[in-house]
Amino acid sequence: MSKTAVPPRDILSFIKLQNPENRSTSKTIYNFRQLVKEEELNGHSVPQYLFKLLEDNGYGYSIQTEPGTNVLSDVLFVHPDSIKLLHAFPYVLIMDSTYNTNRYKLPLFQIVGFVSTGRTFTAGYGFLSFEKTEVYTWVLDTFQTKFLKEPPGVIVTDRELGLIVLHIGTPGPTPKAKWMSAGEMGLIITTKFNILFVIFSTMQSLTCLPLTLTSALPEKEEIVIGYLEIQEHFIWLKMCKDFPLPPIHSNWRHHCDDSVAELPSRYSIRLQKFREIQATNPAARSPVNVDD
């Protein structure tokens, strides 16, 4: 049960339920868990055991140490299947950090890629000492030289200033003209992969349609992401069928070609339903219940 992350108090409750005469306490469970961990480590430190697991399972990984002290500061690792997918689909990568995921309070850095069907895959993970430009420089340079055959076409991040100011391959400021909003990113993804891309956020919700079509837009190919306010990052959303669609990105009408001119009429009912929901909830920053 410990291996499936069941809390000690729940383990103890289960034991007492199965055997009311059992005299174990919470301390008994904690001590046993610690003993199991020590046996698993087999004399290795936690970092050494991590590297052993990565090597045993065929992961590619790289580390960075602090200058002068040789203390481990950053780790980047990629599953072997992810490397194959990265070689085939390096076009769009999403990068973000999640907090409070481990006992060391290190940010867990995640890289997500897109395949041609619009589905996502985990491209890589990392434990980073700081969210600073120099750390991201090491991450991006290492990721590109070790795991990619060609630079990604687009890197999407959310409020990661250390990432925004980097230019792939050559560290340094990126011209402001190359910065990209989530909506602009959505237009690129939907056009590249011939899908519908929808963004839900309390600040601005958008529907992104392809700027051009080489084949008919599939009915079921839709990617939906939502901004998680508490943790300040985007997550993938699984929506109900024919959910209401927010307004179409304003830049779409300025740049689309004739092949997609009829797309708004195809989604008119869903777009109208979203407008009706907004009319009953006029507060501009209030979340919209898309399940209504």
Automatic annotation (TrEMBL):
Pfam families: MULE (PF10551). Residues 92-163 form the MULE transposase domain. InterPro entries: MULE_transposase_dom, Zinc_finger_SWIM. This is MULE transposase domain-containing protein. It comes from Lithospermum erythrorhizon (Purple gromwell). The lineage of its organism: Eukaryota, Viridiplantae, Streptophyta, Embryophyta, Tracheophyta.
